[in-house]
């Protein structure tokens, strides 16, 4: 009864709070780059970054009625009110016919005044656009301007992180995010990538703050009366609207240079002592790109800035990349954590995406495919060709070949519902693979020539795929119609089945190559070069056959029976390959393949066969292969094999020197359920110094209900680590365990240690508490613990609190969620609250607690059996001793 009274008091006070406070806007500011999201994250990002359209296409770049020449933003962010206001001046020239009316994108802006070089007769603000009518038509080619005064409490595009929201005061800052169509939410503009102009930013902030923007800084001054600092930036080369960026606040700065290009690295004072770890490769990446691309870095400087809650990577604004704060890491993770690939991806965009930009979102791969591929090229430059191919392998096997819901969509696709639909594997890893196949077929020199010509011919403009194709055709003298048709304008990739047979009488190798995928209007029959490497003693024979039919048979003369036959030894074809080979042939490939990716493919095949000989070969690779990626995949393969022998091989490798391999071994070991191995797991985890690997050990403990595990997890909650990552891992494992015994521990974390967690980490505590609370009384108590977090100013905490209340499935949560949905000014949070309300009545068929209880009983039986076995063994030894005495 006391709980119910407390609950009614809580609901009443919460509704009062909602009626008098503004609920913080939840951000869609998740980066478009570094395609690394789960399906849930991808769905959220699509909703965030894609402006919903009225139909499913086809969609084309809008017709340009004017040529925008320059945009000037004079703005003042208000950190207390979390509003932005100022004047936007747009210089333009009418195209094709006299201009009577100018329409600009402007979402939820309060527009107070519009002036122009030609007098403005009236303007209309629809909430989505502002339409400006002139006293008389503006002649074609006449240089003109409009100046628009506006202000808003932005729902997107412009974001604040302040102490009032729960962030450290020393880290207070604001930032913008334009891609794909979010600039319109804080200033009026032509918000589509087929328009480029020079830009200018004048920003007024408190005098002790820093302002960073595109281009070069022209100056700064402080108004002694207002104590506001005015900072003036100019981007004097044209770029698209979504690349306009303003960041202001408190930052610590590191400096470097790449030749004569100044490099700035800005991070939050609360974590800046670790910032150098993340930016140590930037200068060498830039030098490599200038050499590889054959073109100097095109802008005045290059800055990188970390931001709170920019959670999906980075955004390649012209000359200033904004990054998630999660890119900062501590040295104790050794070589597991790194920002190098993110750094390389965003820096590549300064040429591919900023200097030359896709004209519309259907050609997004011209931005993202290049940035993804050049990241792999830098890995190859720094660590060797094995690293380049390993990146392509992980992209292919992890993203492209599994396909997904979009497997019937081509890379260039105009029937998207919103722009966010385009930001998937087709633009990123598949686009990268298309470039890799072109480079492989043309050779590095011709490829570089084509790319350089492409950039020079289309410098500072927007492009479509045919213009890239033309560059490759001009450089090579070849036609690439079929190549682009099958890989870019049609969907998918080939499924290839290969059969090999050696004829000792004729001393020939016979090959049969079949394309087994379904061919229809969406997916073509592919044409591709198929290369085979045959090792015959000391000689390796290479043979390439052009495949373009459903089934293709051919013969290759060989001096003796090959001990290795390898398909695509240079890893140049994106395909699902089923090569029907004997175990001996796969063993030969593991032993002799030149590149690590070939040895990895052999490991995968041998693991499926699950023989002792194959396992021994994989164990040897884990112990001694020179490339870390092979050792990582060997550990994963042993984990999948699942045998006691495989586990023994993994245990023997648990002290690998390379932290990446050591983590893979840990991940594989904890995948086994072996109660007798638990003591060893806890001992190794306790001895491990690398927090990333400790996380891996912790993650596997949810299978066990032993008191020793609970004790270890509780101890992990108080173990100090960078950004509390070990405690966060313990919370996740507690949640997966399904055990209500951890509820008091989670409550204690909320009450006494909430400040130690990142917003995402605290969200995990909330979700775990909801999941583990068992019974109505416990759930009511959990509701009292969770509901106040709805008024936390941090978006990740708010979202988690909403979801946690839905997870409780208590009717008592309904009025809280409904009031929240009605009060918030954020559409995304309101929708989340309504979804959580629907979750309250959803019937789950799963019965996890019963399953957990059964598992616990099974473990007790195993302990009893082990004890009985030990007693029996002891009796047998005594009996043997008695017999020997007689």
Automatic annotation (TrEMBL):
Segment forming the signal sequence: 1-25
Reaction equation(s) it catalyzes: Release of an N-terminal amino acid, Xaa-|-Yaa- from a peptide, amide or arylamide. Xaa is preferably Ala, but may be most amino acids including Pro (slow action). When a terminal hydrophobic residue is followed by a prolyl residue, the two may be released as an intact Xaa-Pro dipeptide
MF terms in GO: alanyl aminopeptidase activity; metalloaminopeptidase activity; peptide binding; zinc ion binding
Keywords: Aminopeptidase, Coiled coil, Hydrolase, Metal-binding, Metalloprotease, Protease, Signal, Zinc
Source species of the chain: Blastopirellula marina
Family: Belongs to the peptidase M1 family.
Enzyme nomenclature, EC number: 3.4.11.2
Segments forming domain Peptidase M1 membrane alanine aminopeptidase: 281-487
A GO CC term attached to the entry: extracellular space
Chain ranges of the Aminopeptidase N-like N-terminal domain: 70-243
Keyword flag Disulfide bond: no
Coiled-coil ranges (or none): 851-885
The UniProt record lists the keyword Signal: yes
GO biological process: peptide catabolic process; proteolysis
Cofactor(s) named in the record: Zn(2+)
Superkingdom of origin: Bacteria
Listed name of the protein: Aminopeptidase N
């Amino acid at each position: 009864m006391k709980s119910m009274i407390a609950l009614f008091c809580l609901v009443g006070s919460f509704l009062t709070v909602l009626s008098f406070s503004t609920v913080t806007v939840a951000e869609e500011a998740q980066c478009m780059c570094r395609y690394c999201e789960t399906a849930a994250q991808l769905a959220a990002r699509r909703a965030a970054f894609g402006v919903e359209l009225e139909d499913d296409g086809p969609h084309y770049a809008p017709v340009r009625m004017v040529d925008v020449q320059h945009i000037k933003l004079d703005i003042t962010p208000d950190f207390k009110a979390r509003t932005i206001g100022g004047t936007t001046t747009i210089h333009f020239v009418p195209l094709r016919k006299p201009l009577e009316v100018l329409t600009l994108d402007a979402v939820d802006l309060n527009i107070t005044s519009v002036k122009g070089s030609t007098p403005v007769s009236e303007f209309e603000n629809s909430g989505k656009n502002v339409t400006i009518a002139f006293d008389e038509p503006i002649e074609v080619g006449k240089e003109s301007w409009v100046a628009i005064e506006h202000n808003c409490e932005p729902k997107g595009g412009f974001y604040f992180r302040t102490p009032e929201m729960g962030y450290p005061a020393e880290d207070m800052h604001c930032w913008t995010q334009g891609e794909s169509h979010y600039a319109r939410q804080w200033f009026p503009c032509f918000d589509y990538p087929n328009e480029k102009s020079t830009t200018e930013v004048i920003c007024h902030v408190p005098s002790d703050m820093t302002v960073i923007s595109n281009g070069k800084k022209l100056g700064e001054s402080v108004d002694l009366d207002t104590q506001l600092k005015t900072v003036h930036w100019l981007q004097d080369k044209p770029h698209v609207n979504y690349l306009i960026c303003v960041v202001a606040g408190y930052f610590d700065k590191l400096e470097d240079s790449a030749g004569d290009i100044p490099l700035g690295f800005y991070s939050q004072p609360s974590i800046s002592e670790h910032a150098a770890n993340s930016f140590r490769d930037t200068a060498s990446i830039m030098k490599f790109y200038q050499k590889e691309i054959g073109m100097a870095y095109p802008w005045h400087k290059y800055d990188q800035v970390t931001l709170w809650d920019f959670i999906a990577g980075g955004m390649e604004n012209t000359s200033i990349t904004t990054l998630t704060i999660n890119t900062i890491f501590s040295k104790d993770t050794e070589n597991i954590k790194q920002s190098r690939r993110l750094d390389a991806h965003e820096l590549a965009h300064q040429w591919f995406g900023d200097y030359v930009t896709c004209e519309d979102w259907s050609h997004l791969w011209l931005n993202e495919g290049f940035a993804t591929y050049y990241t792999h090229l830098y890995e190859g430059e720094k660590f060797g060709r094995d690293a380049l191919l390993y990146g392509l392998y992980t992209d292919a096997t992890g993203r492209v070949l599994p396909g997904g819901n979009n497997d019937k969509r081509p890379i260039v696709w105009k029937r998207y519902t919103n722009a966010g639909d385009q930001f998937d594997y087709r633009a990123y890893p598949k686009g990268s693979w298309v470039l890799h196949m072109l480079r492989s077929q043309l050779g590095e020199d011709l490829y570089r020539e084509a790319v350089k010509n492409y950039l020079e011919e289309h410098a500072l403009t927007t492009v479509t795929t045919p213009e890239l194709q033309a560059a490759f055709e001009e450089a090579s003298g070849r036609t690439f119609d079929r190549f682009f048709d099958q890989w870019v304008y049609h969907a998918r990739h080939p499924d290839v089945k290969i059969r090999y047979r050696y004829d000792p009488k004729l001393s020939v190798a016979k090959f049969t190559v079949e394309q087994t995928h379904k061919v229809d209007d969406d997916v073509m029959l592919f044409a591709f070069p198929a290369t085979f490497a045959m090792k015959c003693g000391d000689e390796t024979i290479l043979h390439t056959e052009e495949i373009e039919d459903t089934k293709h048979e051919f013969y290759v003369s060989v001096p003796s029976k090959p001990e290795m036959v390898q398909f695509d030894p240079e890893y140049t074809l994106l395909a699902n390959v089923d090569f029907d080979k004997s175990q001996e042939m796969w063993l030969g490939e593991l032993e002799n393949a030149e590149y690590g990716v070939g040895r990895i493919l052999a490991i995968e095949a041998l693991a499926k066969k699950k023989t002792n000989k194959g396992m021994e070969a994989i164990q040897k690779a884990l112990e001694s292969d020179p490339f870390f990626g092979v050792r990582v995949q060997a550990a994963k393969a042993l984990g999948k094999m699942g045998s006691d022998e495989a586990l023994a091989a993994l245990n023997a490798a648990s002290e690998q020197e390379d932290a990446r391999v050591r983590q893979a071994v840990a991940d594989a070991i904890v995948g086994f359920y072996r109660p007798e191995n638990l003591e060893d797991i806890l001992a190794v985890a306790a001895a491990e110094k690398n927090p990333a690997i400790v996380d891996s050990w912790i993650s596997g403990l949810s299978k066990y209900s032993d008191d020793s595990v609970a004790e270890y997890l509780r101890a992990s909650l108080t173990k100090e680590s960078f950004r509390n990552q070990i405690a966060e891992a313990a919370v996740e494992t507690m949640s997966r365990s399904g055990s209500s015994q951890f509820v008091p521990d989670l409550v204690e974390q909320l009450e006494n240690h909430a400040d130690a967690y990142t917003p995402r980490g605290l969200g995990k505590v909330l979700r775990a508490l909801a999941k583990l609370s068992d019974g109505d009384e416990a759930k009511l108590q959990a509701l009292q613990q969770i509901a106040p977090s709805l008024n936390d100013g941090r978006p990740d905490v708010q979202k988690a609190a909403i979801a946690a209340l839905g997870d409780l499935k208590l009717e008592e949560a309904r009025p809280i969620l409904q009031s929240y949905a009605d009060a918030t000014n954020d559409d995304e949070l309101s929708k989340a609250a309504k979804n959580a309300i629907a979750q309250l009545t959803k019937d789950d068929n799963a019965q996890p607690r019963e399953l957990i209880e059964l598992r616990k009983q099974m473990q007790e039986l195993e302990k009893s059996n082990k004890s009985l076995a030990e007693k029996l063994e002891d009796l047998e030894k005594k009996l043997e001793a008695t017999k020997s005495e007689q």
